[in-house]
Amino acid sequence: MTPAPGITLAGEARIAGQPLFAPLTLEVGAGVWTCLLGPSGVGKTTILRLIAGLETGADFTGTITASDGQPLAGRVALMAQSDLLLPWASALDNVSLGARLRGERRDRDRAMEMLERVGLEGLHARKPARLSGGQRQRVALARTLLEDRPVVLLDEPFSALDARTRSEMQDLAAELLAGRTVLLVTHDPAEAARLGRAIHVMGTGGLETVESLPPPHPRAVDDAELLMLQGRLLARLRQQHADAPGQDLP
Amino acid sequence: MRRASRIAAVVLTLLALWQGIVWLTGLPPFILPPPLQVAQTFWASRALIGEHALVTLTEIAIGFVIGAGLGAVTAIWLAFSASARLLLGPVLVFSQALPVFALAPILTLWLGYGLWSKIAMAVLIIYFPVTTNFLDGLMRTPAGYLDLARTMGASRPRVMFHLRIPAALPSLASGLKLAAVYAPIGAVIGEWVGSSQGLGYLMLLANGRAKTDLMFAAMLTLGVMSILIYLAADALARRVGRD
User: Fold this and answer.
1) Which of A133, A137, A147, B147 is most buried, judged by most C-beta within 10 A?
2) Do B158 and A100 touch (CB under 8 A)?
């Protein structure tokens, strides 16, 4: 893996002439977790997709630059809320999908090692239908790790999981993605508080950088400071909503 | 087992109904032969019926393979190329708007009295449902897969081969099931228009000579054969479309 760059996105986006988000600047720190917190429909996912170089359906005017001046294409891995596992392929084949899609030789040993690292030893032959929701997200995480990209974009990857599994996945992802530049899009204040080295709250008014916890991350789930911050973040979201009601519709 | 007894019950009820109509109306056997007479004729003419059934089955099988193959290849080609979709889409619909029945005499004229005019009929009738069903599936690859492929740096042919085609196999499977239902229709129409072999030919022949019992025997053979072909295609579809 090449050194993880920081990312700066500056600009505005419109959908059919209507502003999706006003001019804003988002700094994603090099080699740390940055959380983008906010309700649905404010353009969080659009920002993530812009950085990933994917189709957004919005007109973006502005710039997206990496701190090392190199293009981002080919240096980004994506993990979404849906695990995006291929139902017809085994866990192992799913983990090594990238190599197959690029026509490269598959490194079976490394793929097995990744499955082991996410705690799925011995389940490599299983089809996704025979894995639990948490196990499926672990396969998706192993697939992301095998891609070995310096920038990892996470679009609410844990929000469909139950509370216990979610917190376990947060621990695992934080451990395994350490050292990479991670942008996590979430609507869950608890998740942002636990994982974010930097936290930005996104609302219709724009982007607002809020205080985050000093390292280490992630804190224990019952850490007092964590719970305080979580409460303050939720209060902030509620305040935003009170200021601009009716904006939480997608 | 329960399924088998349910099917047996349905068949027996229909036979009883048939016999009941014969008794109640007193229709002569050359209008409506009773089931037992049809069964006797079937047994007495089993070699004749078998010979003609084999011809029809061959037409259907070859037509199915060619039609499904052409349909699948066309679907993949159209999924690849937007301009091909734009150009060929209307042609495809028009080809289906034209009744295949109307084409049968021309095909016989062009391809002769033998097997190939019937195979061509089966191919024509199969091609459209396979193409449209498969193409539909190919155009509806979950967007998330395509996003993933893009960030992974995949090429278009590889995305087609490793993501879009496997994801569309259930749609191909439903196209194949439709094809199995249509294929016998194509073959038999071809035989009606002009042939010297096949169950369709045998039915016309028997009908012309007022051998209604033989016609019924041939017709029922065709029905059973069509059901078996459908079941085979269903089994194939399950294999193709399994997750």
Assistant:
1) A137
2) yes
Closest to A51 in 3D by CA, of A193, A192, A154, A163: A154
Q: Which residue is listed with tokens 């998740």?
A: A191
Q: Which CATH architecture has domain B41-242?
A: Orthogonal Bundle (1.10)
Q: For residues A141 and A79, is the Cβ–Cβ distance under 8 A?
A: yes
Q: Please report, in tens digits, the pLDDT of each residue of chain B (243 residues total).
A: 688 899 899 999 999 999 999 999 988 888 899 999 999 999 999 999 999 999 999 999 999 999 999 999 999 999 999 999 999 888 888 877 878 788 888 888 899 888 899 999 999 999 999 999 999 999 999 999 999 999 999 999 999 999 999 999 999 999 999 999 999 988 999 998 888 899 999 999 999 998 999 999 999 999 999 999 999 988 888 887 664
Element (H, E) at A210: strand A206-210
Amino acid identity at A231:
G
Q: Which residues contact A184 (CB under 8 A, 6 or more apart)?
A: A33, A34, A35, A36, A154, A157, A191, A192, A195, A196
Helix axes B115-138, B46-80, angle to 10 degrees: 40
Residue A177's closest CA among A77, A92, A50, A73? A77
Q: How many CB atoms lie within 10 A of CB A246?
A: 7
Q: What is the pTM assigned to this prediction?
A: 0.83
**Cis peptide preceding A216, ω within 30 of 0:** yes
Residue B202 CB contacts under 8 Å (≥ 6 apart), including other chains: B48, B49, B52, B214, B215, B218
Please report residues of B whose CB lies closer than 8 A to that of A76.
Answer: 151
How far is residue A84 CA from its own chain's centroid?
Answer: 14
